[in-house]
Specification:
Elements lengths: L17 E4 L2 E4 L8 H4 L4 H4 L14 E4 L8 H7 L9 E9 L16 H12 L3 E5 H7 L8 H9 L7 E5 L10 H4 L5 E5 L5 H7 L3 E5 L7 H10 L4 E4 L3 H9 L5 E7 L21 E9 L2 E8 L7
């Protein structure tokens, strides 16, 4: 995650074969061949390819709450993160943070992520009608429409969803590049939520490549923005950040659920937190589920709407 809060996933730096001890580097023995990669059935052609560094995490996700269980499959994870049935919209936000609350490490969330986190990240997209992101994230990371395998498309169809999700960008100023791949390369037309005061010339540049919707007069009203998405049949809303967007959803009373990955490290001072801006805080949360993978925790919370819950 950069300073705008985008969840930019990267493999952790370093590697399993080196460890710092008393001011010197100790080189540990390499793992024998035939481990996880061998169990995936890699043949001779694969072994002749470039040697890949083993990840720090083993991507074996287990459930701790409400009922402990063994390793979870993708279908188990889909059930664990299933969107509640109901007539209204469901707004879910997905974030990663360190154990001491940092929303990024060295300006990005890559150092906080893991293979299991990326797995949950992708599965949450598979459960969404629309992926909602802030304009700062789009500009900084060069957001583009991601690829979806045939398997993921089939999974979405089986869930009664469109084969591909829509992407929606929140931008009051419309400071967006209409030639970016998020617009020109999207198989589903991208939606832009803006305000009525956005510069007309920027709207004119975006109109040919996106559906631009005014949700608010002087600034983007996220409650109106959610209503606009629901009017298009996009009721399962997944936000990927950043912190200002999360703060805005909280302030609008639109947040239903938070999915938070807690990475097993201390980032130290300097990094921001997952909520920024004039949010209506504090907001009470209820734990729905807790998963674990080699030290990383995956918490699924719902907003507590009972009297006194916030």
């Amino acid at each position: 995650m950069d300073g705008t809060g985008h969840r930019h996933r990267r493999w952790p730096t370093g590697g399993p074969g080196r460890w710092q001890r008393a001011g010197r580097v100790v080189v540990l023995p390499r793992r024998r061949r035939g481990g996880a990669a061998g169990r995936r059935g890699g043949g001779a052609a694969e072994r002749r390819g470039p040697r890949r560094r083993a990840p720090w995490w083993d991507a074996r996700v287990r459930q701790l709450l409400p009922t402990p269980s063994g390793e979870l499959t993708d279908d188990d994870l889909l059930a664990a993160y299933a969107v509640p049935a109901g007539p209204g919209p469901h707004v879910r936000v997905n974030f990663v943070a360190s154990a001491d609350g940092a929303a990024w490490l060295n300006g990005r969330s890559g150092g906080l992520s893991s293979p299991a986190d990326k797995r949950v990240f992708a599965l949450l997209r598979d459960l969404a009608d629309v992926v909602l992101v802030g304009a700062g994230t789009v500009r900084t990371e060069g957001y583009s429409y991601p690829g979806f395998s045939d398997e993921r498309r089939a999974r979405r169809r089986a869930l009664g969803l469109a084969e591909l999700p829509t992407f929606a960008v929140v931008s009051g100023s419309l400071d967006l590049d209409p030639t970016s791949r998020l617009f020109t390369g999207a198989p589903v037309r991208t939606v832009v939520l803006t305000s009525a005061q956005a510069p007309p010339y920027r709207r004119a540049a975006l109109d040919p490549v996106a559906d631009v919707i005014a949700a608010g007069e002087e600034r983007v009203d996220l409650a109106l923005g959610v209503d606009a998405l629901v009017a298009r049949g996009l009721t399962r809303i997944l936000s990927e950040g950043g912190p200002v967007l999360l703060g805005g959803l909280v302030a609008a009373g639109a947040l239903d659920e938070l999915c938070l990955t807690v990475a097993p490290l201390l980032a130290g001072p300097g990094a921001g937190r997952i909520v920024a801006g004039p949010a209506r805080l504090p907001v009470g949360l209820r734990v729905l589920r807790l998963l674990s993978e080699d030290g990383s925790l995956f918490a699924r919370y719902s907003v507590d709407r009972t009297p006194g819950g916030d």
